[in-house]
């Protein structure tokens, strides 16, 4: 298949692009605006592959998206292009509304018209995989888990914008018959993770001897998913998922934020041989507004229908992640110097 991956130079998108371009027979076309979080270096290992192409375009520009469809004639779309950082959505929600809602609308409309022009043969095999987040479900109690039937209850501008895009994708399937599948994933981590998020920020602040911020009491619980496990899951959904369905993707690795930070500090102590523990850098800071307390994904449907299992538990995945960042300074140092230096985001003035 010729697979168009939007946001394919971002964290999850680049993992999916690398996986499909190197581990499958699919042709991969990456469409990415290259915002602050997009990085062509993340695609370097597949950039020279004959089955790879790149288009620097903005999904909010419908004419540009139509041109990509006309040029490359995709047989599937994996839609990952999104503004994704909750803190940034708190202090600047405009771009989240434009990219996550309007951009998704543009893609759905371009795909719908494209299939209408191409005819029924392509429509029967075409797939539009809309990749979303577990944050659309809101916050859980102590013993519950998110299932595909959990009602939406978003808490942040980011999760609200993703919830809106999910509803658009499902509506375009029900109203127009667009062959849509929606996925909702838990918190991803792994190589090439932009350092505004908890895990890479903790690793790099520890590297630099800077304070490691922990929001509130650090007892918020997240379910962690190694990004390469997520890429494998999306490939299975692309090839074997049922149209009109939703699949939750989670690693079954619940940890409090404080436990995650402490585990990274222990791995940094082990790797760097410091006299003092990196735990001494932990600094409790003002909590994020509207901070959800717990997320946990029930991935039983994906596991039962498509035979997917996460290959990494949190202990193996976080060790790989820490060592990747320690061994790939060439990737993250330019980001820390020129794009994002680790300062606190998402504080509401006034």
CATH architecture: 3-Layer(aba) Sandwich
As residue ranges, the low-confidence spans are none
Q: Report the count of strand segments.
A: 12
Q: Which descriptor suits the 3D outline?
A: globular
Helix % is: 40-55%
Order of helices and strands: EHEEHEHHHEHEEHEEHEEHEHHH
Helical stretch tally: 12
Total tally of structural domains: 1
The level-1 CATH class: Alpha Beta
Overview in brief:
The protein has 350 residues and is an alpha/beta fold. It contains twelve helices and twelve strands. 44% of the residues lie in helices and 16% in strands.
Which key features would you list for this structure?
Rossmann fold, 350 residues, alpha/beta, 44% helix, single chain
Task: Describe what you observe in this structure.
The chain has a single domain, classed as 3-Layer(aba) Sandwich (Rossmann fold), CATH 3.40.50. Helix 1 crosses helix 8 (about 225-240). The chain contains 12 helices and 12 strands. With about 350 residues, the protein is α/β, with parallel strands linked by helices. The longest helix is centred in the first third of the chain and has 25 residues, at about 95-120.
SSE blueprint:
Elements: E1 2-6, H1 11-23, E2 27-31, E3 52-55, H2 62-72, E4 76-79, H3 86-91, H4 94-118, H5 120-125, E5 127-133, H6 157-176, E6 180-185, E7 187-189, H7 198-208, E8 212-215, E9 221-226, H8 227-240, E10 246-249, E11 254-256, H9 257-272, E12 282-285, H10 300-306, H11 314-327, H12 329-338
Parallel strand pairs: 1-2, 1-4, 2-3, 4-5, 5-6, 6-10, 7-9, 8-12
Antiparallel strand pairs: 9-11
Helix pairs in contact: 1-8, 2-4, 4-6, 7-9, 7-11, 9-11
């Amino acid at each position: 298949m010729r697979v168009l991956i939007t946001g394919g130079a971002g964290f999850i998108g680049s993992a999916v692009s690398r996986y499909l371009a190197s581990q499958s027979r699919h042709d991969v076309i990456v469409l990415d605006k290259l915002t602050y979080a997009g990085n062509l270096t993340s695609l370097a290992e597949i950039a020279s592959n004959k089955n790879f192409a790149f288009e620097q375009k903005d999904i909010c520009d419908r004419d540009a998206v139509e041109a990509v469809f006309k040029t490359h004639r995709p047989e599937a779309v994996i839609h990952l292009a999104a503004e994704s950082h909750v803190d940034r959505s708190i202090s600047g929600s405009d771009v989240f509304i434009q990219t996550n809602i309007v951009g998704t609308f543009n893609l759905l409309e371009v795909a719908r018209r494209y299939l209408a022009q191409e005819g029924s043969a392509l429509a029967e095999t075409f797939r539009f995989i809309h990749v979303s987040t577990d944050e659309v479900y809101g916050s859980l109690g102590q013993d519950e888990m998110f299932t595909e039937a959990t009602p939406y209850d978003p808490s942040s501008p980011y999760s609200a914008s993703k919830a809106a895009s999910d509803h658009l994708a499902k509506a375009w399937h029900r109203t127009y018959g667009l062959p849509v599948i929606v996925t909702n994933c838990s918190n991803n981590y792994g190589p090439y993770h932009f350092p505004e998020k908890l895990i890479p920020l903790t690793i790099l602040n520890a590297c630099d001897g800077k304070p490691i911020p922990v929001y509130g009491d650090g007892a918020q619980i997240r379910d962690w998913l190694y990004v390469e496990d997520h890429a494998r899951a999306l490939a299975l959904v692309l090839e074997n998922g049922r149209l009109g369905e939703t699949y939750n993707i989670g690693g079954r690795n619940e940890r409090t934020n404080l436990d995650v930070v402490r585990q990274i500090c222990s791995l940094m102590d082990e790797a760097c041989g410091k006299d003092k523990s990196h735990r001494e850098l932990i600094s409790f800071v003002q909590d994020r507004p509207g901070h959800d307390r717990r997320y946990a994904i029930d991935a039983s449907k994906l596991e039962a229908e498509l035979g997917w299992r996460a290959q990494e538990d949190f202990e193996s995945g976080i060790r790989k992640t820490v060592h990747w960042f320690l061994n790939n300074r060439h990737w993250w140092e330019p980001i820390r110097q020129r794009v994002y230096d680790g300062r606190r985001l998402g504080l509401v003035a006034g």
